[in-house]
Amino acid sequence: MAVSVLPMTVAHIAAIAALEEQCFSTPWSAAALTEELDNPHAVFLAAADGERVLGYAGMHHVGDEGYIDNVAVAPEARRRGVARRLMAELEAYGREHALYRLTLEVRASNAAAIALYAGAGYVCDGVRPNFYRKPTEDAAIYSLYL
């Protein structure tokens, strides 16, 4: 599978919004995703196989920190390195822009995502109790110190 990772554009919004609906209980809307196109503090990437969006990742950076908002991969494209590629691109962006660390929250029960983050060198900084809704669940906080 030849996957390209490129900046999110308006052409990706519908597919990414559909992916949000498929992957998250409180998905970002197409309008919210579109707003990020003009946000100077946002880095949103799409992973595509030709015209088909397989995944995406979004991050906001303020000062010397990056906060990874979402990483989502279509179910049929999981376990093929798509999320790993997206994370590597965010890390490269962080290094290029002299960020001190990247941080994210993940559902405490999401073993696959936690394995991905730990494998990429992220460490668990703590837990935010009852952070998520639908269903209510703790968030594990992970950081990668660059």
Walk me through what this model shows.
There is one protein chain. By secondary structure, this protein is of the alpha+beta class. Helices cover 29% and strands 40% of the residues. The protein has helices at 13-23, 30-36, 82-96, 111-119; strands spanning 4-7, 42-49, 52-62, 65-73, 101-107, 123-132, 137-145. It has a 7-stranded mixed sheet with strand order 1-2-3-4-5-7-6, sandwiched between helices.
Sequence-ordered SSE layout with sheet pairings:
Elements: E1 4-7, H1 13-23, H2 30-36, E2 42-49, E3 52-62, E4 65-73, H3 82-96, E5 101-107, H4 111-119, E6 123-132, E7 137-145
- What is the helical fraction, as a range of percent? 25-40%
Name the strands of the widest sheet in spatial order: 1-2-3-4-5-7-6
Specify the overall morphology. Answer: globular
Give the C-alpha Rg.
14 Å
Structural class: alpha+beta
Number of strands: 7
User: Beta-sheet strand percentage?
Assistant: 35-45%
Biggest pleated sheet: 7 strands, mixed
Task: Write down the oligomeric state.
Answer: single chain
Mean pLDDT value: 96
Low-confidence stretches: none
N- to C-terminal distance:
30 Å
Number of alpha- plus pi-helical segments:
4
Order of helices and strands: EHHEEEHEHEE
